[in-house]
Here is the input.
Amino acid sequence: MTDLTKLGIREIRDGVAGGDFTAREVAESFNSAVEAASSLNAFVVTTPEKALQAADAADAARAAGGELGAMAGVPIGMKDLFATKGVQTTAASHILEGFTPQYESTVSANLWAAGAGMLGKLNMDQFAMGSSNETSHFGAVKSPWRKAGSNQALTPGGSSGGSSAAIAARLCPAATGTDTGGSIRQPAAITGTVGIKPTYGRCSRWGVVAFASSLDQAGPMARSVEDCAIMLGAMAGFDAKDSTSLDAPVPDWFGGLNADLKGKKVGIPREYRMDGLDPEIDASWEQGKEWLRDAGAEIVDVSLPHTKYALPAYYIIAPAEASSNLARYDGVRYGLRDLPEGAGLQDMYAATRAAGFGDEVKRRIMLGTYVLSAGFYDAYYTQAMKVRTLVQRDFDAAFGECDVILAPTTPTPAFGLGELQADPLAMYMNDVFAVPASLAGLPAMSVPATLTEDGLPLGLQIVGRAMDEQGVLNAGLAIEQRAGFAAQPEKWW
Amino acid sequence: MSVTREEVAKIAQLARIKMGEGDLDHLVPEFNKILEWVEQLGEVDTSGVEPMTAVIEQKLRLRDDVVDADPKTGGGRRDDVLANAPVAEHGFYGVPKVIE
Here is the structure.
């Protein structure tokens, strides 16, 4: 029998529907793969029984001749940022250790309703703050990828690093991710996987642990563009419980896939060609242009003049929102409580937050508190929000001249665990190409392009107009078909 | 603009995060490095530019002003709400004494 862990979402659901194998067999295969891969540290909690339960339901529905959902029989990984009823949800933070939600997030509920099952909760950067997975309270995830001839442990990216590692290592066919400033695209790019952040508001934020609410957006991660299209369709949709949920119909993205780009214009933002750009990244970008030209598109030069200011604006806006959102962790209502002997309420707050938050989370809460404080608010926060308006206007102007934008996803391939930990600014630079689309709320995806000389994956990024996930997916498909990326990490775990 | 050790300690107090001297040793230089970097935003001419309020233009919805409008987020779920409390007694959260 074929190794079921090699299959993607479409192959699994079609195979289950067609009776080629049962959903239970699929779930058992992935459960075993997860169990055997604990050295990757991709999961915080495993839930093999949940995967089997959903599989049995899919098999029973098929036997009864009932209608099968879009994800029927597909076991997935769930980033530990999504509240899952009865299953610990921590955002990879000590302050939420042991927290067991009494409700289900809208996105995960949508996926279960579509027939998916849960293999477990995936490790991540603490509160989604990080680009390497090293800020997790539960230890860094190790990428299944290694440089040729090296045993050095590499980052799977972040914050959705458990998701990217698990997909690359064939522990799950797909997983949820969330993207505040690149947290789906950067980990996808450096692990040779595919991920899309839809337009802000497509996927409900209800039940997703909040980081920076004006930027947080959930999306699918998988190994192919079509699998992302299927899964995004299952995740997205209007939700009255999220005040910024988009009240718009969910298109049939999977049915609409079309890699013929005749008549489409692809913009190349000249400001992304930064000094000292890694030559291999540059070469893959050039190759991407060729692929899209081959698919029928016209390549045009566009300008996004405020690109340079997007990242510093992000590092004011996101920490400001985080400092406000994370005020809720006070040792009273849920999570950790640290009550020193004889302490009062204020001391309890301070001790709880000192013990519960990791260093990067504290750094961002402090930064946010500072930029929002009296006397500094206008100089920092208001100025950053004006720059955000300018970044969005840049995109509006560029989309007057093109349909999608092509850029690298990351400035470098995967780096070693520990290499950037001492320098927060160097770590922040990982998201330099990802953050502008986040600030503008635009759909953006990363697709694998090639391997470096060292044997590490590189991704290409497509950014589209608001609500045009289809255009993004189609350009991604055109690249995927031409890149023929089939590389897999050699199993060492 | 750079911030002093005392200012960072004050911010930590505002953020309700207990910080020892050792924590401040790390944080003060890091904090200043990040602030120096974000201050390049001051170069941007933003005169006449409105700060962004909504990334995707939409109207805020209002729900009906009734109790329990949504069974998932409405009232009548005390036990669920208290289920994860570090200390819950008699149907309330338990906290250290705040009034002498």
The two ends of chain B are 42 Å apart (CA to CA). Strands of chain B lie at 88-89, 92-93.
